[in-house]
Amino acid sequence: xxxxxxxxxxxxxxxxxxxxxxxxxxxxxxxxxxxxxxxxxxxxxxxxxxxxxxxxxxxxxxxxxxxxxxxxxxxxxxxxxxxxxxxxxxxxxxxxxxxxxxxxxxxxxxxxxxxxxxxxxxxxxxxxxxxxxxxxxxxxxxxxxxxxxxxxxxxxxxxxxxxxxxxxxxxxxxxxxxxxxxxxxxxxxxxxxxxxxxx
Length: 199
Known about the structure:
This protein is α+β, with helices and mostly antiparallel strands and 199 residues long. 26% of the residues lie in helices and 27% in strands. The protein folds into two domains: 1-33; 36-197, Cyclophilin-like (Cyclophilin). The protein has helices at residues 2-33, 56-67, 163-170; strands spanning 36-41, 44-50, 76-80, 84-87, 117-120, 133-136, 155-161, 174-177, 180-184, 190-197. An eight-stranded antiparallel sheet has the order 3-4-6-5-7-2-1-10.
């Protein structure tokens, strides 16, 4: 009986250790596995961590555009201090680029439009997001999903480096260009967008 008790205790310890180790490995792999996308802009670099777990469709869509070089050479076409900066669709001469088909809205994934998060821009149609995205400069709670009447804007990542650059972009002088408002007078260009880490 004593020997059986000793073995039972040993088995419990081993099982607990394996469970703990497994949990730790899972957390580490989840963090390390997230892809990082570096935006090299004319105002400095911004690094975005993409959350493929919470927003799989949106993340895949974003990474597809990155891999195609779609964002290289485009501008931040909206800059509003205390709100957000937006990019992902226009050339320096305000020509809108041709995109892939729109994607489904994943705004009810639990991620919130807080300062430093990255979310998809869209029209009034919740499922109309394509290539454009924005960086929240403050907590924009009213952009979060809160039900069918307020479908929200899908957050799919966060800025891990370069929020000072995002703030710098927000402070540039802007003007109206045709139907577009809050357009930087001097173009702020994304020179390149590349995946720099993650598997």
